[in-house]
Amino acid sequence: MTDSINSIVSSLSIENNLPVVSSKVIADQFGKSHKDILRAIKNLGCSQYFRERNFAPSFYEVITGNNTTRRYRCYSITKDGFAMTVMGFTGKKADLFKEAYINAFNAMERQLVSNVNRLPAPTPIDDINFMYQRWLVVVENGVITNKRLLNGDELIMNRHQFINYFKEPDIAFNDIDQLIELSNSVNERIRAQIQKLQ
Predict the structure, then answer these.
(1) Which segment of 24-38, 55-69, 107-121 scores lowest on mean pLDDT?
(2) Is the model's pTM score more than 0.85?
(3) Half-sphere exposure (Cβ direction) of 27: Cα atoms closer than 13 Å
(4) DSSP state of 121
(5) CA–CA separation, 120 vs 12, rounded Å?
(6) Distance CA 92, CA 16 (A)
């Protein structure tokens, strides 16, 4: 069982700062077919909210005999999703695996918290001028994947806004050299488009 526990601990990974396990690994560890695990997840009576928070669609790859790679669907499952999925698994071996997984999840969560506690202290809020902060936040599949503070001279706009920006009398180009540089770039683009049409 010690080897199994070690393989359980090594089967967890971190996604979005949470420990997760693949549905494929659960199938392998519990001696079940992966399609049965997928069916069990599909048939769970949990809310859609719970499902979206604890079962992230994913895939795994298998190299076939003719050296091609096939992709199969699976789920990255959180601790709560794991508990919901394996709750109905019975028998002494299943209970030992459940306990080992729960202990592995808890150990990894403690490690994550420990790592967070080692981060440098954030800038005191009094030192931040919120009146003039602009942030660029990238959200993919409902999860923030990137964020950063925008510099004072960075602009985010669509094409229509970009064109109208230059029609404003008080645009931010106070330097004639900047306007000439912009004009030269636009003229080069126009020449290239005309050459394509000829």
Answers:
(1) 107-121
(2) no
(3) 16
(4) P
(5) 27
(6) 33
Judge whether 27 and 36 are in contact, CB under 8 Å. Answer: yes
pLDDT of residue 37: 93
Share in percent of the chain as helix, strand, coil (round to 5)? 55, 20, 25
As a three-state string, the secondary structure of 125-194 is: HHHCCHHHCCEEEEEECCEEEEEEECCCCCCCCCHHHHHHHHHCCCCCCCCHHHHHHHHHHHHHHHHHHH
Distances (CA, A) of 102 to 29, 46, 87, 127: 14, 20, 12, 42
Q: What are phi and psi of 12, to 5 degrees?
A: -80, 150
Place of tokens 């902060």: 133
For residue 119 the two structure tokens come to: 């981060």
Predicted confidence (pLDDT) per residue in 112-140, tens digit: 777 655 555 554 544 545 445 666 777 77
Letter string b/e over residues 151-160, b meaning 16 or more CB atoms within 10 A of that residue's CB: eeeeeeeeee
